[in-house]
Each structure stands twice: as structure tokens, then as C-alpha cells.
Amino acid sequence: MAVEDHPLDYARFEGVIPEGEYGGGTVMVWDIGTYTLEDDESFEAALRRGRIVFTLEGKKLKGAWTLIRTSGRKWLLTKRRDRSASTTRIAEAKPRSVLTRRLLAGIARDEGGDVAKAATGDPGGG
Q1: What residues does 51 pair with on adjacent strands?
Q2: What pLDDT, on a 0 to 100 scale, did the predictor assign at position 48?
């Protein structure tokens, strides 16, 4: 789902946003890295067209990806077949924060959030 731009400071925010506020709940930085557009067009043109082709160089996610607008503000992210493709369920294999190594439930516990609710976001319940 497309959302408005956020300040760059949010890129390293982990903690709890109070329920009832925009984005309320426990927040984790699951991956971090860079991207490179693969098409010659600008990001803005690709966004208007509804198809963004890029390569990720993250700590967890790597390789070629495509974002395709399915309707309105809804987008589908697909991994393209390349040397980084695998059948591993990466969220289950690497569920911890790249910044603090905590699970979502651990962030909730440490920051005063809803641990039970956050635990539902931890692959394997953990």
C-alpha cells in the first residue's frame, strides 16, 4: 500500500507507536540497504506507469525485483529469478531486526508495547 513520504529519521526507528495514532503498533527495521533502478526511466515515470523494476542490495533482500500497481494505491512486489532467488522463506529464516537483533515481540516488551500482538508478527510465533 502506498503511503506518504516519511522523514529519513524514520529509517532507523524501532519502538512502539501508540495505538490510535497513524502507523500505531510495534515497529522494526527488518532490512536496510540500497536499490538501483534497472530501467532508463526516472523513478517518478516508473511510478506513474505502475511498474518499477529495481535491484536490492540489502542485508537480507538482494537481487532483482518488480513492483507492479494492481489497483489504486495497491502494489504487488515480486522477486525475479536471478542468482539471489531462493525457496527460503526469508522472514522465517531471518526474523530479527537488522539494527538490534530483537524480534518484534522483544521490541514490544522493551518499549512498552503489546507483546502478544507483536508476537503474531514474529515468524514461528517467536
Answers
A1: 68
A2: 94
